[in-house]
Every structure is written in structure tokens, then in C-alpha cells.
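S.,

Sequence below, as promised.
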Amino acid sequence: MSDVLYRTATPDHAPALAAFAAQTFIETFAHLYPPEDLAAYLAKSYAPAIQREELSDPAIGTWLALRDGALVGYAMAGPVDVKIAHGAHDRELYRLYVAGAVKGAGVAQALMRKVLAWSKDANAEALWLSVWESNKRAQAFYKRYGFEHIGEHKFMVGCVADRDFIWKLVL
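The prediction came back faster than expected:
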């Protein structure tokens, strides 16, 4: 989208990022979880203080997509967190969230290009990610980049264990 601006996030973006991340997660996944599990996950993962800490970590890269000053997407990547053998410089895509209003408009692709360039600049041999087994749209997106299914793990949302696929892209 030509009216979307992309920029690297700073700790000052933490409140807006926390709100956007939580809202996007709720819109996409809330129907899957009991309210108490969802609330626990959101508090553990997207609180402004947590976002500020992540945005302050020099090992983590975060890119924002803004339209008319409003956040419409973001990507966050850093050292590999999934429990699988990986190269020392490999990176993991932690999150790639896009608002429904801009899905299909190229925002996710622009953010992915930033993550790929950043990973290559870090001399990563591979980019890893975890994707929910039933998120077919995300899986189709990642397949277009050449990601391959390597394994799986449990992704906890409160007391609910989701089955997530672990995918790898050789850079």
C-alpha cells in the first residue's frame, strides 16, 4: 500500500504496540479460548511494560506499518526462541500481525521483507517461525516465501495448549 509508512519501532511505541497486538490477537483467536485463559495470555504477552522491554532489547527487531499515523501492522523478530536445534546466528519471526482492513494489500509482504533483510544482515542462515496448525492463511503466506515444516510444539494460551507448527526458511 502506497499510503502506508514503515518504520523501526522504539520503546516509545510500546503503548500503541501493546494495544494493537492485543486487539489483533483477540480479533483472530479469542473465540478459541476461555476468557480467563485469554486474559492471562494477553497480560503475559502484550502488556505495555513487556512491549517496552522487547522494544528496548537490541537483539530484537520490530517494524511498524502506519497509515495516517495509526498502526496497521507490525513484525517482531529476534534470537531463536523455539526449542529446536538451530544456527547460532539464526533468527525467529516472533510475530507478524496485520489489521484486517489492510490484509491482502501488501503490508505483510513489506514487513516480511524487512525481517528477511534484518535476518540476513545478522548473518542468519535460517529464519524460523511458529504458526498455529489451523491458521491456513498464514501458512499459505509463509509457504510463498519457501518456509518448510520442520516440527511442532505446544503454544500455551493460559491453560490451553495449541498445536503450532515450527517452520524454517533457509536464507
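The chain has five helices and seven strands.

Coffee later?
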